[in-house]
Amino acid sequence: MSATTKPSDAPEPQSKEQRLKQFLRSKADDGEMYFKSKFIADEVDLSAKEIGALMVKLKDSATDLEIEKWSYTSATTWRVCPA
């Protein structure tokens, strides 16, 4: 008896980085956006700590977004706008 696999119609789950990048792109479409990780954590289903670590990565890798550490008052504020 052989096992066969059927291709799934369901899309592959996005990585955490892809999910955050997609969220930032959609929000930055209207212009620049300022945020603290803890305030968007629920929307992207990530912890504030995960978002902070991913923002550092995306700052260098997301060529279509301009990402800047803006200020620090009780948590880092990030500035994101289309590149």
Tell me what the structure shows:
- This protein is α+β, with helices and mostly antiparallel strands and 83 residues long.
- The chain has 3 helices and 3 strands, in the order H-E-H-H-E-E.
- The protein has helices at 16-28, 37-44, 48-61, and strands at residues 33-36, 65-72, 76-82.
- The chain has a 3-stranded antiparallel beta sheet.
- A hairpin with a 3-residue loop joins strand 2 (65-72) and strand 3 (76-82).
- The chain is globular.
- It starts with 15 loop residues before the first helix and ends with a strand.
Tell me briefly what this model is.
The chain has 83 residues and is of the alpha+beta class. Helices cover 42% and strands 23% of the residues. It contains three helices and three strands.
Which terms would index this structure?
83 residues, 3-stranded antiparallel beta sheet, 3 helices, single chain, DUF7123 domain-containing protein, DUF7123, alpha+beta
